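Holo prediction. Input below; ligand is zinc ion.
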Amino acid sequence: MHEFEYTVQSGELVRVCSGSDIFESKLREICFHKDQLWAVDHNVYELHGALLDRVATELKASVHVVPSGEISKSRLEKERMEDAAFAAGLARDGLIVAIGGGVVGDLAGYVAATYMRGIDFVQVPTTVVAMVDSSIGGKTGIDVPQGKNLVGAFKHPIAIVADIDFLATLPDAEFRDGFAEVIKHAAIRDEGLFRQLEQHRLEDYRESGLLTELVVHNQKIKIGVVTADTREAGLRKILNFGHTLGHSIEALAKFQRSHGVCVAEGMVLEAMLGADLGVGDSEIVERLQALLTQFGFEEHHLRSSFSAMDLVRGTKTDKKVASGEVHYVLLESVGTCANLNQGCSQPVSDDAVLATLGSRSA
Ligand SMILES: NC(=O)c1ccc[n+]([C@@H]2O[C@H](COP(=O)([O-])OP(=O)(O)OC[C@H]3O[C@@H](n4cnc5c(N)ncnc54)[C@H](O)[C@@H]3O)[C@@H](O)[C@H]2O)c1
Ligand SMILES: [Zn+2]
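Structure of the complex:
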């Protein structure tokens, strides 16, 4: 079991516990004697209901099941969760426990941020994405007709309990998708991790010891980025690597391709852009593409079926657009981003992006 704490800008502490078979003991420690509402992803409840019911009964927690899928990051589900919290009698000193992937974590965190003007919450991430990415950093929120994640709040959990055993039931495609963010972390911040990944295959990480180490390593990378001191105010932007074109692909595919697949493709294209601009080189692109293929992001998925013009147009609605030119995070080498002291991203002209996208082998 790994346990450590980190401090967020407001000075609050977040306790992070990760390992196998820790759910019961850690929830007992963290949540004992509190009025609490557990917001549980429907699929997780179906698969792990016996364990959840047993511990919920012991801790006198009310269980509120949230339908699975992005559709639940909605105003409607926010209301339903608030009503469940009122029905459970949660007061200012109550607790919301989010048990699920990024969807339940983002939704429950947002409810916790505003219910009674803010109550404590705990994240129990049950997907790779949630363990290495969405449970860390304090971004919470819901989707509205105007776009994804457009209504929300910054709200850090008091604790994150990442019990690796939940991942045993995660479908292969979801498991793989989390590795797009893992590979992103390695590419932007940690050449050593990138090398480690190059020596493994996705299946190797189904083993809980290796998986725990990987989760903890990635938690620390993301925590390091989001808690960086104010002199590095732009550092958080590096987490957008692969996401500028990735989001464009996701929207063009009408969200029928998974986020991980779109980000994998976005990373390759953005690495190509960096190489064409002379910031990085073609070796970065080759290593990235090879690693993604090795982890199940098939090569044909890494070549966008959308026109260069549509892809560029798609980046314009992205919130990273500043003064007309879209900013990109570019890799200087594997494990290091360019412009770390100058805002961490740079504006790139549409012509340059079109040239790179136009020259990629289709
Ligand atoms: N807040 C942030 O900083 C941040 C960062 C990244 C992503 N996100 C958000 O996270 C969401 C994506 O997260 P996600 O990939 O975890 O998606 P998700 O929460 O939809 O979970 C993916 C699928 O896996 C199922 N599932 C979850 N745990 C399971 C388990 N242990 N066994 C079997 N099935 C299980 C879910 O029911 C769902 O069908 C998006 O809404 C995204 O916007 C937020
Ligand atoms: Zn992402």
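The longest strand covers residues 147-154. That is the main takeaway for now.
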